[in-house]
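User: Fold this; C-alpha cells only.

Assistant: Input:
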Amino acid sequence: MKILDTEKGTIAGINLIDFIVVLVIVFLAVSFGTKVLIKDFEFGGDEMYNAIQAYQRLDQKGFLVEADIRGKWISDENEFESRGLIIETRSGAFAFKMRGGSEIIWIGGSMGYLEDVAASKLVFRPLDNYVVPIYTGPMTFNSSTEFIDYLKARKEELGSDHLLIGGSSSMPADISFINPSKSAQDIFNEFGDLYYVKYYGILQSSGNEVIIRLRLAELSELEKLDIDAEKVVVSRTVLYAGYRSMPGELEGYHIASLEDLK
C-alpha cells in the first residue's frame, strides 16, 4: 500500500481531507492543553487585573503562592528579577515578600509608578497542587510545644506534604500566648522573620497575654518560633493540608485543585 496515493487522494489509506482534519484537531488539542498547563499562571505586566483575580481564587482556597517577578525598580529603572511570596493585594499591586528574608516590597504593573517595582512578567508558583481545608473549633494547649506537636500530628495523620494554619480571607486566625516569655514586640519580630507566613499583626497585648492575628502560616516555619508560654489558645481556625499529588482516602473532605482554579 502506498503511503501517499495521489490518484485516490489518500495518505496511508485515509482520505486526504479526513487526514488533514484529524491533524488540525490533534494540533489544536495539544496546543490548547499546553497553554492551559503552562500559561494560566503567567501574566504580562499589562495583565495585573487578571493576575490579581487569579491570585485571589488561589488565596480563597488556602494556597500559598510564590511568584517569579521580572521588571524594573521604579526608583532607578534598574532591572529586577526575584522569587518571593505574595502576601497581600491592593488595587493593581501585590505585596511581595522577598525570598530569603523578611523584606516586603510592592509590585505594580508595567505602567506602575507608586509601587517599588514595575513588573513586565509574573509567574505564579503555588506551594502545592492540591489543598484540603479542615475546619476546627477553638483549641487550648498547655505550652507552645504542645501546640506545635498537635500540628505535626495532624500533618502526619493527613499524610500531607505541608500543613498550614490560618483563617479565611475575611476572618483570620487568632493565636493567644498566655504569660509568654517574650514581649509583644519580640513575638511580632519572630513572626516577621518567618517566610511562609501571610498577614500577621498584634491584635491585642496586655501584661499577661499577646494575641497574634494571621491569615496563613506554614508548620515548618512555626517550628522555628522560640516562644515559651503558659498556654496557647487558638480561635476557630482552618488547617490547610497541602499535597503535591492527588491525596487518597480523604472521604468527607473537599479537595481544591490547581487545575480547577485555572
